[in-house]
Fold this protein.
Amino acid sequence: ENISVKSGAWDDSGVFIYTTSNHIKYALINGDHGIIRTLDLPIYITKIKGNNVFCLDREVRPRLLNIDPTEFKFKLALINRKYDEVLHTIRTTKLVGQSIIAYLQKKGYPEVALHFVKDEKTRFGLAFECGNIEIALEAARALDDKRCWEKLADIALLQGNYQIVEMAYERTKNFDKLAFLYLITGNLEKLREMMKTAEVRKDISGQFQIAMLLGDVDERVKVLRQCNQKSLAYVMAATHGLVEQAEQLKESLDDKVPEINPNAELILPPCPISQQEFNWPLLNVSKGFFEGVSIKGNQTAATTGSSTTTAPKFGANVNIEESATTGGGWSDDDDLTEEKTHENQVKNETGEGWDDSEPELPADPDVPDVASDEDDTGGFFEAPTKGQSVPQMWTENSKLPVDHVLSGSFETAMRLLHDQVGIVSFEEYKQIFLQIYSRSRTAYTALPSLPALYAYPLRNWRDAHSPELFFPAVGLKLEELVGRLQAAYRLTTNGRFQEAVVIFRSILLTVPLLVVESRQDILESQQLIEI
C-alpha cells in the first residue's frame, strides 16, 4: 500500500478491512487486495460486523457505514475452495466486470469466468484458454471471424479433434492445410475431391501438388499440358509409360523432343495403412464441482457442430489401388453428423455458457456423480502421483556436499560445507559449483521431434538396486588434485608464483568436495591441505 493506512480491523471471515484517506480497502490472506468503497472524509475503523463498519470520524463521533462484501467474499471462497459459496455468488449477485474476469484468469479459473460473460468474443478467449472446444466452437460460429476459426483449428488440432479442424479449415478456405490434414489422416477419398476443387478454382499449383501426393500421373500430365509445359508433360508421360499420351505430345513438340532417362525409377507416395476416421480418444476424468452442477441443471446444450454441412460426400476412386482403408471417412462420425441436444433445457439468467470442465477442482459430496457423455467401461482416469527425480534422491540419500552440488541443490551444499568445515563465504565456490554441476548428467536425443532426454550417471551403478542407493558419479578425483599440486610445484620452481598461488587456492577449495573410499585416501587429502 503506497498510501498511509489510517486504521483497520479484521472481520469474522478473516479479511482485513482498512482505510486510507479516501478509500475503504480489503486485504486477503493470499495477498490480494482491492477497494470496497470511496470516502468523503477519513474515518477510523473500530469494528467490522457483517456489512457494517463501525468507525469514528475526525471529530471522534461514532458512525456506521454499510459496505458491499460481495467481491472479497467471492475471492475468499475461491481461496478456501468453498465452491458452493462461489456458485451461490454467481447465481445471486451481479458480480461482473473486466476486473473480476481478469482476476479469475490470473488465478487459473477461466472456466468460472465463463459464467460472467455473454460477449461471444470474450467467451471465445476464455474457452480457448481453458481448452473448452465446445464453447469455443459455439462462440466461433456466432462470431464467424477468420482469426477465431484459425485459433479454434489450432487448439482442436492439439486435442486431436480432426472434425473441428476440418470444419475450421473449410471456413477459412485454408485449402493447403486441409489437403495436408487429409494426407496425414489417410483420407485419400477427400484428397481426391480436393484436387477436383482446386481444378474448379483454377488453382494449378494446388492441383499439381495434390496429384503428386496421390501419385496420380495422368492428372499431372493433364495439368502440365494445360499450363503449356508440353516438354515436361512429355517427359512425365514417357517416363511413366503412358505411351499414347507421350506420342500425342511428341507430335506437338516438333524437333525439340527432350531425352528420357533410361534409368528412371518409379516413385510413388506411401499408401496409408489405415485411415484416421475418428478423433483421438480422450481420457475420462471425474467431473468437477461446477461442471456437475451445470450438467445437473442442464443450463446449456453442448454443441459440437456438423462438419458434413460443408464437406460433401465423395465417391471418386483413388489412383493408389494398394490395400488402403479409405472407406468410412469422417462423414460417418456421429459426433458431427448430429447436434447434441438436451431435453427440458433450463436457461438460468446467470448460468449461460456454463459447460466446461474443471479437472483440478475436487468433486463436492453434495453433487451427485454425473455419467460421462460417452459410453465408457474403463472408468475414470486418475492421474499418477509425481515421483521423485534422480537429483532429488541424491540430496536425500547423501550428506556429502559434492552430491548436493551435482544435484543442483547449491543451498544445501553450502549449508553442509558450513556445518562440516566452517566455510562462511562462498563467492570463490561459484565457478567450482557450476563446473561440477555441468558434469552431473548426460543429454541424448531420442527422436528428432522430441526435446533432449537426460541420463544421470551413478558412481555405484553396480550396487544401485534401489533408488535409496543412488549416488552420483563424481568427476573430481584425488589423483587430479595430486596432479595439480605437481603443476603448482613446477610453477613455483620457475618463479611463476602468481599462477602457482591460483592453483594452490583451487586445491584448498576443492578438497572438501572430494569423495574418498578408504582411510588412505582420507590421509592423503589431509596432507594436501597441510602442504
Remarks:
- The radius of gyration is 36 Å.
- Confidence is low (pLDDT under 50) at residues 293-377.
- Residues 217 and 241 are 10 Å apart (CA to CA).
